[in-house]
Amino acid sequence: MKNNALILCITLMLFPSVLNAQDLFVAPSQEGWERAEYTHRQADFPKINAKGEFWFRFQAPPTASEVVLNIPVAGVSMPMQKDADGFWNAILTIPKVGFQIYYIVVDGVRFLDPGTTPFYGNGYTGTVEVPSPDEDYYVIKDVPHGDVREHWFYSDVDKKFRRAFVYTPAGYDTEVNRRYPVLYLQHGAGEDESEWTHSGRAAVILDNLIAEGKAVPMIVVMNNDFVYRPGDDRSGRLYLAPTGIENFGEMFIGEAIPDIDAHYRTIADPAHRAMAGLSLGGMITNQVGLAHSSMFAYYGIFSGGTVSNPERIDKNTVRFIFETCGSQEYPERIAADVETLNGMGIKAASYVSPGTAHEWQTWRRSLHEFLPLIFK
Amino acid sequence: MKNNALILCITLMLFPSVLNAQDLFVAPSQEGWERAEYTHRQADFPKINAKGEFWFRFQAPPTASEVVLNIPVAGVSMPMQKDADGFWNAILTIPKVGFQIYYIVVDGVRFLDPGTTPFYGNGYTGTVEVPSPDEDYYVIKDVPHGDVREHWFYSDVDKKFRRAFVYTPAGYDTEVNRRYPVLYLQHGAGEDESEWTHSGRAAVILDNLIAEGKAVPMIVVMNNDFVYRPGDDRSGRLYLAPTGIENFGEMFIGEAIPDIDAHYRTIADPAHRAMAGLSLGGMITNQVGLAHSSMFAYYGIFSGGTVSNPERIDKNTVRFIFETCGSQEYPERIAADVETLNGMGIKAASYVSPGTAHEWQTWRRSLHEFLPLIFK
């Protein structure tokens, strides 16, 4: 062992260039490249070109020997190449469209690129938006825009002020005698209440559908899924346990909905109230929303499993249940569940997002399909 | 040289423990430590204890040899210590209060801690909130809360949709015939339009002052300082050049204000319109706002220099100019400027934030001092 090390040392002293044996990255011309949509004003990378290729650049510590770009949902794990200035680079076509998170792995340790708007995620990550040639329903257009409001209310369950985001449609401030139906929309386990409008572009989707007359003007309320009582252990996955769901239910049914009905011009009856969510938010829609099925007429469960205990459903109130997932998830399961529900006399339908998995493009599409079907 | 390297190699082979010569960090008991205010739900660090000490922990690549915690405004540059699990740690009392940004320097390269809510900054950074024993005007309380709305409008100057945040006070939705004065509030060069409500806690300060009857209910509009025409070079500091200020002025005066007057219940006259900003936002208040002094009755320049060309000021419209900075900035300059303005028959006053520099605590305090003085 010592001999081997000695030989290595001597080799390095005689031929130090072996340390730089890997090919240096040679940057293409900067022409045709511009900052990608989420790139920070003062950062130069990530960039995108007209072909839709992305160019990532990252500064690792000088001793780094292996730097990898990881775009998990798109299945990308690509070694980055060092350039003459010591930065690590990767240029690629990302094989999925829509909102993609990424991080950089330096010698096995995960880092966040400070150059892009972070995603809340399971710990913050970088983000890029991969243009979709066939979809423009989530692109901001010259239509009347609603506002997304940061709204605070006190919860006696977790003994703190909670933040919710509330979408009020265009016209809300001028048609002051008009009241609106309400959709409660929950995020997934790796997110917070901000991500339906950030990653999900819910407000843009609503503005566009309402402007086209495809969805009715509605209020959309986005609450945080997580409710911890003082003393609850926050280190584990409490929110997946019955206690976490119970905490949420008590806050949501007992506090959040009455607060919204008090502060916004809702039509505060079950026929004008809907609940939907993605992943954990879909589970919550099932476990909390459908447990109170005399309160909501419409339900959307996006990549959130299937309906449990359908016999509990109040058929006099519930008008429609919508189940969705990506084609790479479990389309057969939701198709079978919809058949079961319809067989019980509960109106239900499903939607399968083509070519997607458990990812934001599935949920943007799910919301876009769901909104025209409710409050009509 | 080769001989020295040979001696080093042999030494390392014989005594590999010299590589681990530094003392390992020994973690204190976790008791009494909890997640700090901005710590991510799924992250364990930074933590804070009852004494107000912070504990930072960061995972660097395994080859890292020097890891430093940098809290620039507080003057902290502290070597972190490796623990037995390979994480780098620092425990300290931060010598400044309020909102503090930080980053981690690994072998000379700056990294972002993925464990906290990022600050937009000059490239994203980590954040902590250091409690201030004497100040609670920016702590959320059980008072009526206004909403902060994300509002989009199209600009023909930079040919894109722009985002503004608009604070509407509690009661805005119920007192539907009431109209309100408007404060336009600009951020600094290292920020964006989100930071007055995030780092600055402007909405909390407004809610508290309005609830106490110290400030009148008002609308507050926070626009982004940066306006680039198609083809403008975005790589430099255009926003500090005359072109950048002109671009902003054209967007702000010609588009943003009319858009707000069209979409919100403003009192759309100069006596009920104010403009203020911090740092670059103060410069803009001076260079754009005071260049249109027949449009605004009140001005706030926070750490943004002094008034240029006071002879241009429309004394029939302008009722008050407020200049502030931290005691570690240039209090003499603003005191002299206020004297000059008063000597010209323009009502002006100054405020100096004790013990602070060019930092958020200066600007929170400046806003808190300014709001009671306007629209009265």
Task: From the structure above, extract its key features.
homodimer, 376 residues, alpha/beta, Immunoglobulin-like, Rossmann fold, globular
Give a structural overview.
The structure is a homodimer of 376-residue chains. With 376 residues, chain A is of the alpha/beta class. Chain A has two domains: 25-130, Sandwich (Immunoglobulin-like), CATH 2.60.40; 147-373, Rossmann fold (3-Layer(aba) Sandwich), CATH 3.40.50. Helix content of chain A is 21%, strand content 25%. In chain A, the strands form three sheets. In chain A, strands 11-12-14-13-15-16-17-18 form an eight-stranded mixed beta sheet, sandwiched between helices. A five-stranded antiparallel beta sheet of chain A has the order 1-2-3-7-6, with no helix packed on it. In chain A, helix 3 crosses helix 4 (280-289). The model of chain A is unreliable at 16-21 (pLDDT under 50).
The amount of helix of chain A comes to 10-25%
Task: State mean pLDDT of chain A (0 to 100 scale).
Answer: 92
What letter string, H or E per element, gives the SSE order of chain A? HEEEEEEEEEEEEEHEHEHEEHEH
Name the overall outline of chain A. globular
Uncertain ranges of chain A: 16-21
Radius of gyration of chain A: 24 Å
Largest interface: A-B, 58 and 59 residues
What's the CATH topology label of the largest domain in chain A? Answer: Rossmann fold
- Give me the count of strands of chain A: 18
Structural class by helix and strand composition of chain A: alpha/beta
Multimerization state: homodimer
The CATH homologous superfamily name of the largest domain in chain A equals: Alpha/Beta hydrolase fold, catalytic domain
Number of individual domains of chain A: 2
CATH-defined architecture of the largest domain in chain A: 3-Layer(aba) Sandwich
Question: Looking across the biggest beta sheet of chain A, what order are the strands in?
Answer: 11-12-14-13-15-16-17-18
Report on the biggest sheet of chain A: 8 strands, mixed
- For the record, the CATH class of the largest domain in chain A is Alpha Beta
Helical segment tally of chain A?
Answer: 6
For the record, give the distance between the C-alpha atoms at the N and C termini of chain A, rounded to a whole number.
77 Å
The proportion of strand residues of chain A reads 25-35%
